[in-house]
Amino acid sequence: MVSRTGIGDFMTAIARLAAVSVDCADPAVLSDFYRRLLDAEVFFESDDFVALKGAGVMLTLQRVQNYRPPEWPGDVSPKQLHLEFAVDDLDAAEQQVISLGARRAGVQPSPDRWRVLLDPAGHPFCLMHPIPGA
């Protein structure tokens, strides 16, 4: 029997997360950024799609015609995805991902706990301290 009543109840998974897909204008450029950030490897590659493995779940980058990067914060072109990356040292990690092509977002809600950056395609993502027990 599968219980859906709340915290602590046993649930049987119907599925497991296999991949996270990110829309972009140039999958080759964006996959290179995430490949270096996560020390992942290319699993599959075409002009319109790149799949990276080795980051826990597969990360795929796919070309979308007339791609518009999200605006963060804002709602003219809202973010459709937000990745969180656990790091041991926020300052060092921020400098490293900027050297890979990311840029710091103008709004930093809690920079002592997490840093908001934008990947080369404009997607916001955060660097954060590891969550205990996660």
Characterization of this structure:
There is one protein chain. This protein has 134 residues and is of the alpha/beta class. It folds into 2 domains: 50 residues, Roll (2,3-Dihydroxybiphenyl 1,2-Dioxygenase, domain 1); 67 residues, 2,3-Dihydroxybiphenyl 1,2-Dioxygenase, domain 1, CATH 3.10.180. Helix content is 16%, strand content 28%. The chain contains 2 helices and 8 strands. The chain has a 4-stranded mixed beta sheet with strand order 1-4-3-2, covered by helices on one side. Strands 5-8-7-6 form a 4-stranded mixed beta sheet, covered by helices on one side.
Give me the secondary-structure topology.
Blueprint (H helix, E strand, L loop, with lengths): L18 E6 L2 H12 L2 E5 L3 E5 L4 E6 L19 E4 L3 H10 L3 E2 L9 E5 L5 E5 L6
Parallel strand pairs: 1-4, 5-8
Antiparallel strand pairs: 2-3, 3-4, 6-7, 7-8
Q: Structural class, from helix and strand content?
A: alpha/beta
Strand line-up across the major sheet: 1-4-3-2
Shape: globular
CATH topology of the largest domain: 2,3-Dihydroxybiphenyl 1,2-Dioxygenase, domain 1
Oligomer: single chain
Query: Beta-sheet strand percentage?
Result: 25-35%
- Specify the CATH homologous superfamily of the largest domain: 2,3-Dihydroxybiphenyl 1,2-Dioxygenase, domain 1
Unreliable stretches: none
Question: What is the helix tally?
Answer: 2
Mean pLDDT: 84
Quick description:
With 134 residues, this protein is an alpha/beta fold. The protein contains 2 helices and 8 strands; from the N terminus they run E-H-E-E-E-E-H-E-E-E. It has helices at residues 27-38, 90-99, and strands spanning 19-24, 41-45, 49-53, 58-63, 83-86, 103-104, 114-118, 124-128.
